Amino acid sequence: MLAQPRVPRNAKGVASMSRVAIRCRAGHAAVTTVRVPVALASEAPIELDVDALYKRAEARAKALIQLEEQEMADRTKVKIVLPCKIGLGESWKIVGKCPELGNMKPEVAPYMTWNQGDIWTLELKVRPGILSYKAVLRKPDGQYLWEDGPERTFEMPYGGPAKELQVTGIKFPPF
């Protein structure tokens, strides 16, 4: 049984504040009655079917995942290749103006993979349209060093065969 919260009332006895108390335990199916003070100084019980809410949320999440998977099938696969030798503990990221490349936030952008011969690669499927991006070097201390100059661009077609994108001529701003 839930304890009744003390509700401040004004001079006319009308509740001046609303509170909702919900009590449930993970893994247990329950219907919880909630008492909510209303402006008429009476309390109205509200019943919540927690299991039904969880099932609706799960169904919605599954539908969104399915929609994303359908969209992914229409996207073009791109392999970004960056040949460059860097220092121990350093790594490359490609940061771009799309969710797959971190929306220009290097903390979120995917890391490139090192391959034999100091070839860095990143394979992903991106949305069709103009892809704007920059190469970013992550230093061992966690700082990011952005390449100098304007953003690079590449037009991604709708569907079609996989593309390979070579990133060369990276220059950094003078210190």
TrEMBL record:
Name of the protein in question: CBM20 domain-containing protein
GO molecular function, one term: starch binding
Species, as recorded: Tetrabaena socialis
Pfam assignment, any one: CBM_20
Residue ranges constituting the CBM20 domain according to the UniProt record: 70-175
Lineage start: Eukaryota, Viridiplantae, Chlorophyta, core chlorophytes, Chlorophyceae
